[in-house]
Design brief:
The complex is a heterodimer of chains A (160) and B (105). Chain A has six helices and five strands; from the N terminus they run βαβαααβαβαβ. Chain A has one domain: 3-Layer(aba) Sandwich (Hypothetical Protein Ychn, Chain: A). Chain A is an alpha/beta fold and 160 residues long. Chain A has a five-stranded parallel sheet with strand order 4-3-2-1-5. With 105 residues, chain B is mainly α. Chain B has one domain: Arc Repressor Mutant, subunit A (Orthogonal Bundle). Chain B is built from five helices and two strands; from the N terminus they run ββααααα. Chain B is globular and about 35 Å long. The chains are: A alpha/beta (160), B mainly alpha (105). The interface between A and B is medium-sized, with 17 and 19 residues.
Amino acid sequence: MANETEYKPIEKVSIIVSRGSLEGVYPGLIMANGARMEGIEAQLFFTFFGLEAIIDKRMDHLKVATVGNPAMHMPTIIGMLPGMSAFATRMMKKEMEKLDIPPVREFITLIHDSGCEIYACKATVDMFHLKKEDFCPEVDDIITVGEFYEKSAGAQIIFT
Amino acid sequence: MPTTTLAGRTIELDADGHLANLADWNEEIARELAKEAGIEELTEDHWKVIRFMRRVYEEEGDAPSIRRLTKESGVDTKTLYKLFPKGPAKKAAKIAGLPKPKGCI
């Protein structure tokens, strides 16, 4: 049809993960993996609390935020009780396992093996006094925001 | 329903261009589907993935996720992406004569 716009398929995505809760980290990981599964070039850039997902000692212990999240349908006063976050995290992990969504560490390995590059944000790394050794081995490099934009040439940038 | 000619036969396709009927599939058709997908020759590793996908589909009604392929097919993630560049799960499903996988992972 003559007046129908022909859209070009997406060829490359550059996904930023800025949050460190379990529900903050997974959308970016699922999108990166999904991109690679579709043959779309992908890279992941972790910044601010998003770094939790690639810090070796922390990545296995991410939690669901039960406070300040109206979509949890849980009053803040209940959400703040000891054990609530651990409980919600356990529930979510169980549901994710049913859908074959891997735990964070396994997911990062899968995504990296699929050819997605993984970067940590230099400003945050400096701010939190972190070193390359603090990260899981899949992290390709610690890069500045300028380098992030260079590497994102031709990509759609997705902020999560 | 759209149709195509593969291995000298007229084959029905679904809306995504995958085979509409599981039973239409055979190895010769797989080789032709692979060529259409830009894979000139199916190696033993390709077959390992294809057979695994068909087995899971027959048993469970959906093609396996990339995670399961990695864990259970006997071919690791890096190899999977080398064998089926531009999207292993979907491409392998098509060559295996299965519908597009329903899962997100």
